[in-house]
């Protein structure tokens, strides 16, 4: 796509904003004119800003501040900020020592984006608190649920139902409720996410959704187990009392 010296490939978000194949993009301070020759699939942004790919020579000229027809300094022609390497058996340390560069993995390179580490750390902290809140809410819900069933459970105990059976029954019911709630939440998220326009950075990943759902169910069961454990303390004599 970038065979032309003045070709440029833009992100799909830029295309959603109105750019089309054949449009001319002008670099204001230099007057350099670039023709849109392709559109990338998926969302490609840098710091939530649309990105574009262009020939190395054109980028070097723009980076050096050289306009159309102006010479580009030799130093600028030799300047490259990053090179992607894919392969096995590459001695990156030797290459860094010889060229004075710094090599890092793809995941490590994300941290080179301004604000990426701080932003992802904040989001990760929010996720941790949400999972903890999930366990607390589930525990509170099943605590109330268990208290409301106290007399019925006492009757079952008085009739000879073992404590283990009551615990397993309570956890099984909690699991059913949590799975149903997770299914409703996933459905709502997918449905609302499909309605989100290109102005909001949103993406659905099956693995991430599955992990989140599993964590929510697991933490919910943990909170439920703490609440349902109250069943073991139910006194069968309560069923014969006059507390109703």
What is the terminal-to-terminal distance? 79 Å
Biggest β-sheet description: 4 strands, mixed
Q: Gyration radius, to the nearest Å? A: 30 Å
Helical/strand content category:
alpha+beta
Shape: elongated
Helix segment count?
9
Spatial ordering of strands, largest sheet: 2-3-1-6
Share of helix among residues? 40-55%
- H/E element order: EHEEEEEHHHHHHHH
Q: Kindly report the average pLDDT value.
A: 78
**Spans where pLDDT lies below 50 across 5 or more residues:** none
Q: Report the β-strand fraction as a percent range.
A: 5-15%
What is the number of beta strands? Answer: 6
Walk me through the structure:
The protein has 244 residues and is an alpha+beta fold. Helices cover 52% and strands 9% of the residues. Strands 2-3-1-6 form a 4-stranded mixed sheet. β2 (24-27) and β3 (32-39) form a beta hairpin. α6 (116-148) runs parallel beside α9. It is elongated and about 100 Å long. 11% of the residues are buried. The model has no long low-confidence stretch (mean pLDDT 78).
Task: Give the tags.
single chain, 244 residues, alpha+beta, four-stranded mixed beta sheet, two-stranded antiparallel sheet
What's a quick, concise take on this entry?
The chain has nine helices and six strands; from the N terminus they run βαβββββαααααααα. By secondary structure, the protein is an alpha+beta fold.
Write the layout of secondary structure elements.
Blueprint: E1 7-10, H1 12-16, E2 24-27, E3 32-39, E4 45-46, E5 49-50, E6 52-53, H2 56-64, H3 74-77, H4 92-99, H5 106-109, H6 116-148, H7 150-158, H8 163-195, H9 206-228
Parallel strand pairs: 1-3
Antiparallel strand pairs: 1-6, 2-3, 4-5
Helix pairs in contact: 6-9, 8-9
